[in-house]
Design brief:
Chain lengths: 502, 631
């Protein structure tokens, strides 16, 4: 299994798109390419599980490495574990769905699909990198196309939003870069060379003084991507101005880059600092969860509702990581996957509604269940998943986070957990309000009576995402089993660094 | 048979999937048949399980583990079912009464275009409730717990084109969610302190030696948190206001919510957790007080309601209060007994009211009814049986269970008895007020309605007759101690639920208590008759007006909770988010631009200026260096 294929396939698809002559070709090439990538990711998953059941216990599988810039010890170094697989599958599914819902893009479709696929290259690369510099490189690849996607194909105050998003994410990655370099110079030099190798750094001991300085840089830097409070304001503006597929990608995958980085880089490599600062992480993420939920209550635009609820839901990712118990961290990873699928579905459904009604304001919608039953069913399912209803992935993910969080003793942690739990009530209020007023009631606008329901591409996209949500919701042990050994490794590193924490 | 227990929830699930996926293609009558058959099939399996459990050779609970649900680190929670006498009894109530309600619905909903969808939701409701009572651990119970919340939302708001109805549905869900939060925290506390959520492990550990750091406070905290969950689902003070509004849904749904599913969940949960509650006497006091207060409070409101379903809804809240009173005094099996008899007569009353509403063309106001008995003979007789049962008239099922509750309350504390007897008295009054206003006297509706009055079709009256029979005979499984030593239901449940033993009442006392409550009820029926013989509906004043407006609790909640929260979030949105955080973000951008604008001015392009600045800089450096060395 050569992991580089996971980068090459979308990259070649993106390049192939450039040679297409019309928009029909463009979308079919993108669709086939992303479907192929989904197949490849699925194959990788089975190959991985096969290797694991075959008794391969090394931490990362299918590794390959090439020297990239030997003078500084920078390598192209890739390899995967269960967490990476989960994120790869998430990315592959969301990208296929994103391509499908963009089927009707007419303006500059070639450029649109090219940028979308380029974004996915960044995400795939990020999730399989084991060299911090390579990882950073892919992180940047996954930022810049967003600016263009929002700026060109967006709606509303798109220039402002695109600029805000790009600048805030760039500041985040600048912090990550500083952190990376500091980390690099604090690694033990072998033959006079420091290292960017993630696994090697994990086995070394970064001095606690250095950790105290580097950890906040890294965590906040990555945290910006995951809407860490108070660096979350790019989320609502960015998501709402973006075209549907870009919103799906942004909320579904891009926000997970941050969570993955917080876990894999910041917490894994600097466990002592993570433990020292954990109360700050818990505090900020609890605020994000509650604050995001209350902020959602006041929104009137469907996309803003989902964007602010993403702030709240992504709070659970950082909350789980901050709790530093294996169950909570497992829950955080599950929440990444679950939220990725759910929010992509939500944005997808909102996009479908918007395309037909030309409005996203809750007050102007109403009675749509009668007019477009399929799309509305999808919309309601996304809402119910967001609301944390059993049977969907949100329930098991959040439940695992809660249970893991409660394992950490201490009054402060328990109070934070209860507050985080309390968000389920507020979530119910805003979801039911959004769903109730846009879906139920009499038809507000007579023009809605004749709008067409979902087409095949939209049905396929929704079906794919719903399947993911339901499978995780009903059989969470599938995902659990995949990531459990790896959260165990992370926990090992943490408990090695921090005595007395299990 | 008990190994096949997964079939019980499976059938309704299949029914839900078939009707839910194909709701646009399946013809209406077929949808009804599929939905009803699914529940009938589960009822048959439940019967088999019931007889197996009833057999003396059945030992202890059977745990059927389907698959591991969450497995993460130290945490292991299987998806398992527990079969014992308590769950098997609830299975019978849910599927049995549920099936009758399904059959009734096939006729009641026949003209509704969304009938197939309706049946899919109904099946999902039954499925969730079955999960709730079958679960072998609190997580599976919680899954069902949340599931019934969703189904009630979907069904209460089933006629979604009416804005009021969808608001009622929303209110139901949110109030339930507040309770769910308590349940969730209680669950986390159990998990944290005992490392398990399975009933068997948890209760086993409760009865064994306690780990360090666990005191009676721990029990009370867990018990209170779970009880908060119960107040939400079972509509107790302070979370009861959703239930009366929930009658916005189609009438059979009200019957399902009020009788077979949903509201009994809280009672089931406490009966299931009786080991915990027995160890937490302080919480039991709270349960008893909340239950009694709810029983009284809801009964006062029911006296002045004019909507036929509202009266029944408040009577449910009041009856649930009785059940919580029973739980609170440690008579767990008595509460379950009342759940059962209540399921029969409340389903009967709601379906009967549905038959009335059906005949009246959708009218629900009892001021516009009257004299319906002449045309709706079956409905009238069955409804009368329901009223007699709920009022606790000897011979009818409600008498036996209510009498047991009252006796248990007396044994615990006579004050509880007096208050409960007062609530029971009011029950007799408002139920017969409803009966007399609806079925006797002269007709007060329009000509048109009078012309259309008709008895409902057989699919509706047969369930009524069956339920009426059950409302009569259902009580004989639990004869009072003074009549018979053998309490069939009590001994059946004893394998899974143990009451807190109170000292036995003397036979004389018990006869007296029975006599007092029966006399009061009969008296109240007579009062109800004389008051409503010549009804006049002048606008009420004073206390009556307060009662008619339900003590203004909805308005109070609105002022104390809803508005402040709205204002708070509006403040957060406008001030903290827009002005605060976003202001800073935009401010950073603006200040960078502003700063660059100023710095740009330094680039004047005049060489003289540059040299001047350079010299200035050098002097500063020299000066600094000079003082640095000195210092």
């Amino acid at each position: 299994m050569n992991l580089s294929l996971l980068i090459l396939v979308p990259l070649l698809t993106a390049i192939a798109v450039l040679f297409c002559s019309n928009s029909t070709q463009v979308k079919w090439v993108s669709f086939i390419g992303s479907l192929g990538q989904l197949g490849l990711a699925t194959y990788t998953m089975f190959a991985y599980m096969g290797a694991r059941t075959g008794g391969n216990t090394s931490q990362m599988l299918f590794e390959s490495r090439y020297a990239w810039y030997p003078a500084l010890g920078i390598e192209y170094y890739v390899g995967i574990d269960g967490i990476s697989i989960a994120m790869l599958m998430l990315t592959a599914i969301v990208v296929v769905a994103g391509v499908l819902v963009s089927w009707n893009i007419k303006r500059l479709s070639k450029e649109f699909f090219f940028l979308l696929l380029l974004l996915s290259v960044g995400a795939y690369g990020f999730f399989i990198s084991l060299d911090l510099f390579t990882m950073f490189f892919f992180l940047e690849v996954a930022v810049i196309p967003k600016f263009l996607l929002i700026g060109i194909w967006g709606s509303g105050k798109k220039e402002y939003s695109a600029m805000k998003l790009a600048l805030m994410l760039m500041s985040g990655s600048a912090l990550v870069l500083i952190g990376l370099l500091c980390l690099y110079f604090n690694t033990t030099a072998i033959n006079g060379k420091h290292t960017f190798d993630l696994l090697q750094i994990a086995h070394q001991h970064i001095p606690i003084e250095a950790q105290r300085f580097i950890f906040p840089l890294m965590f906040v830097g990555f945290g910006v991507f995951t809407a860490l409070f108070p660096f979350h304001t790019w989320v609502p503006d960015g998501h709402s101005s973006a075209p549907t597929a870009a919103s799906m990608f942004l909320a579904g995958i891009s926000m997970k880059l941050g969570g993955y980085g917080c876990l894999r880089v910041a917490t894994y490599l600097m466990p002592e600092a993570a433990h020292e600062y954990s109360w700050i992480i818990i505090l900020l993420s609890t605020i994000a969860i509650i604050y995001g939920a209350f902020a959602t209550l006041m929104q009137t635009d469907l996309k803003y509702i989902n964007a602010y609820s993403s702030v709240s839901h992504c709070g659970f990712i950082l909350f789980g990581i901050g709790m530093l118990t294996q169950t909570a961290i497992t829950g955080a990873v599950m929440q990444m996957v679950s939220h990725g699928l759910m929010t992509a579905l939500f944005f997808g459904a909102i996009g479908m509604i918007y395309e037909r009604t030309h409005t996203r304001m809750v007050a102007q919608l109403g009675g749509l269940l009668k007019a477009i039953p399929f799309i509305i069913t999808v919309f309601v399912i996304a809402g119910l998943c967001s609301l944390g209803l059993p049977g969907f992935s949100g329930f098991v993910a959040e439940m695992t986070v809660f249970m893991g969080a409660w394992q950490r003793s201490g009054m402060f942690n328990h109070v934070a957990t209860v507050l985080a739990c309390a968000s389920i009530v507020v979530t119910a209020v805003y979801i039911l309000r959004a769903v109730g007023s846009s879906v139920m009631g009499p038809i507000k606008n007579q023009e809605f009576v004749t709008i067409p329901d979902a087409r095949w591409n939209e049905k396929l996209a929704s079906g794919l995402l719903i399947a993911g949500i339901v499978v995780i919701g009903i059989a969470p042990f599938l995902l659990n089993g995949l990531i459990l050994p790896d959260t165990h490794v992370i926990m090992d590193n943490i408990s090695r660094g921090v005595v007395g924490l299990k | 048979m008990s190994q096949l227990v997964y079939l019980v929830p499976l059938f309704p699930l299949i029914g839900f999937l078939i009707n839910g996926i194909g709701w646009r293609r399946i013809p209406k009558s077929l949808g009804g048949v599929i939905g009803s058959l699914a529940v009938l099939a589960s009822f048959c399996v439940s019967l088999g399980i019931f007889f197996e459990v009833k057999d003396p050779s059945f030992h202890g609970p059977v745990i059927v583990q389907l698959f591991e649900f969450i497995h993460s680190g130290k945490l292991f929670i299987p998806f398992s079912f527990q079969v014992d006498s308590l769950s098997s009894l609830f299975l019978l109530i849910i599927t049995g009464v549920g099936f009758l309600i399904h059959v009734y619905s096939t006729a009641y909903m026949h003209d509704d275009e969304g009938m197939v969808k309706y049946f899919s939701f109904l099946n999902l409701f039954v499925f969730s409730m079955l999960l709730l009572v079958l679960g072998g651990n609190y997580l599976v119970m919680f899954i069902g717990w949340e599931g019934v919340g969703l189904c009630s939302y979907l069904l209460i708001g089933f006629w979604f084109k009416n804005r009021d109805y969808t608001n009622a549905a929303k209110k139901a869900f949110i109030m339930n969610r507040i309770g769910d939060l308590g349940f969730l925290v209680g669950m986390l506390l159990i998990l944290f302190n005992y490392g398990t959520l399975s009933y068997q492990d948890f209760f086993g550990k409760l009865q064994g030696a306690q780990p360090a750091g666990i005191s009676s406070d721990t029990y009370n905290w867990i018990a209170i948190c779970l009880f908060i969950g119960a107040t939400g689902k079972s509509a107790q003070i302070p979370l009861y206001t959703w239930l009366p509004d929930a009658m916005a849904g189609p009438t059979p749904v009200s019957a399902l919510i009020h009788a077979a599913t949903m509201v009994t969940a809280g009672i089931y949960m406490i009966a299931r957790s009786h080991v915990l509650y027995t160890l937490a006497p302080m919480t039991l006091h709270i349960v008893a007080i909340v239950g009694l207060a709810t029983a009284l409070f809801a009964a006062t409101i029911a006296i002045r309601q004019y909507d036929i379903k509202k009266v029944l809804a408040y009577s449910t809240v009041s009856q649930l209060g009785f059940m919580f009173l029973a739980l609170g005094v440690g008579a767990y099996t008595t509460a379950v007994f009342h759940v059962m008899t209540h399921a029969f007569f409340k389903a009967l009353l709601f379906l009967g009211s549905g038959s009335v509403i059906h005949a009246m063309g959708g009218e629900q106001d009892i001021r516009k009814m009257g004299g319906l008995g002449k045309k709706l003979r079956t409905t009238q007789i069955t409804f009368l049986i329901g009223c007699l049962a709920i009022s606790g008239i000897p011979g009818f099922s409600g008498f036996f269970s209510k009498d047991e509750i009252l006796a248990a309350a007396y044994a615990h504390d006579p004050v509880l008895y007096y208050l409960a007897a007062a609530a029971a008295m009011m029950t007799a009054f408002y139920m017969f007020r409803l009966y007399f206003l609806t079925f006797t006297g002269g007709f007060r509706g329009t000509e048109d309605q009078a012309h259309h009055l008709h008895e409902s079709p057989a699919a509706m009256t047969i369930p009524l007759i069956i339920l009426a029979i059950l409302s009569i005979i259902g009580g004989y499984v639990g004869l009072p101690a003074v009549i018979s030593e053998h309490h069939a239901l009590g001994s059946f449940l004893s394998s899974s639920v143990t009451n807190i033993s109170e000292h036995h009442l003397e036979a004389g006392t018990e006869w007296m208590l029975m006599g007092v409550s029966v006399t009061l009820s009969v008296l109240m029926i007579a009062v109800a008759y004389s008051v409503n013989k010549k009804p006049n509906f002048t606008p009420s004043t004073g206390l009556a007006k307060i009662l008619e407006n339900k003590w203004y609790v909805d308005e109070l909640y609105d002022a104390v909770f809803v508005r402040p929260i709205q204002n708070f979030s509006a403040f957060m949105e406008r001030f903290a988010e827009r002005k605060g955080i976003d202001g800073i973000v935009n401010g950073v951008g603006k200040s960078v631009r502003w700063g660059s604008d100023r710095i740009r001015l330094l680039q004047t392009g005049q060489v003289g200026f540059y040299i001047f600045v350079m010299v200035l800089g050098m002097i500063t450096l020299f000066a600094l260096g000079f003082f640095w060395v000195k210092l």
